[in-house]
Amino acid sequence: MVRVCAALGLRQCGCAGVGSMNGSAAWCGSTPVLGTENNGEVAEEATLPEVTFSSSKHCRKKVRVGCSLWNRSALSSQSATSLRKLPLETIYLDIQDAADGWSAIRDMVVRGAPAIAIAAALSLAVEAFNLEDFNGTSDDAASFLNKKLEYLVSSRPTAVNLSDAATKLKEVISKAAATASEAQSIFQAYIEAAEIMLKDDVSSNKAIGSYGASFLQHQLKNSKKISILTHCNTGSLATAGYGTALGVIRAVHTEGLLERAYCTETRPFNQGSRLTAFELVHDNIPATLIADSAAAALMKDGRVDAVIVGADRVAANGDTANKIGTYSLALCATNHKIPFYVAAPLTSIDLSLSCGKEIVIEERSPKELTHTHGGLGEQVAASGISVWNPAFDGVIIKIRSDAFDIKDFVQKVDQ
């Protein structure tokens, strides 16, 4: 059994934390922490379903990411709604090829910038592993993988982690094709690269949590314990494990420094109420769920010492695209003089974009707003109403007098 942890390939354990208006940090963090039984109750010794490959000749590859299990040996597929059903139901989805991976990502069965990169990389790894009758040359194999990667990147355009992973995997494919004479050598090189990617993601998440906790302790040294507000889900269910922003909260709690974590419901998909609350309860972290619209009142009452969010894409100047509602939180935090931090791995940074205006913002189905359960339930809005449903908004960069150089930071880490 070969453990596979894949996501984005960080050459070194590193990440950049981008502060909005009031704060900045460089954070780098992760470990599997939760799972459920099918009846929705938390198992006594539950762990987040891990990512594994079975390479035995008697068993085809099995991939488990977040709360999705991908088993190539299954004879039929289950409903592709795994993460969409949590926390009341745990369903494992069979992924047989890149097409299944594309659908899982697009339909938000798997979500979270690092996790969708894992899903994409491993769905193609499963397909490559099971191509027993591939009769092409090594060049044919390279072309096959490259086209599949381009297809997978189209599933969700905003998160840079997916395109970053694809770019790195294409480099691996190109190097392998330059020396390999057989197609299987290309496929094997790809699978091994995916394994390294996942391990790197776990390492960076753990570093994010560790550094974030020590940074907050230093910055907020006048507080005996601190309360942190977070948005969306940035934990084990959105990454290879442990999480980015939620990883920092975990580390702060482990250090005995956390008074309380507050998580927003995160409409319309409710990642906060369904997933983040689930992870916090499982870890016995003191936590409170609030409505998205209650964040300003919470800050006004002095209950929040810091706001920490994740990122789907960070431009070269620090502009950050994250789950819709992040911009509102940043403005509220600025108004109440509360430090605001972005915890993200290097793979979320896109130096090819000069600013946030160049980030493509995905727009989701109107049904996610007009129906309950993120579009899966009953209609609640009036028929015929126009809907605008962007999946992301942004965090404004810090004022010019307190600027920071992300490019220089990335170059130093990559050396």
UniProtKB/TrEMBL annotation:
Amino-acid biosynthesis recorded as keyword: yes
Originating species: Carpinus fangiana
Family: Belongs to the eIF-2B alpha/beta/delta subunits family. MtnA subfamily.
Transition state stabilizer, annotated site positions: 232
Name assigned to this protein: Methylthioribose-1-phosphate isomerase
Keyword list, A-Z: Amino-acid biosynthesis, Cytoplasm, Isomerase, Methionine biosynthesis, Nucleus
GO cellular component: cytoplasm; nucleus
PANTHER family the UniProt entry points to: METHYLTHIORIBOSE-1-PHOSPHATE ISOMERASE (PTHR43475:SF1)
EC annotation from Swiss-Prot or TrEMBL: 5.3.1.23
Subcellular location, record wording: Cytoplasm; Nucleus
HAMAP family per the UniProt record, alphabetical: Salvage_MtnA
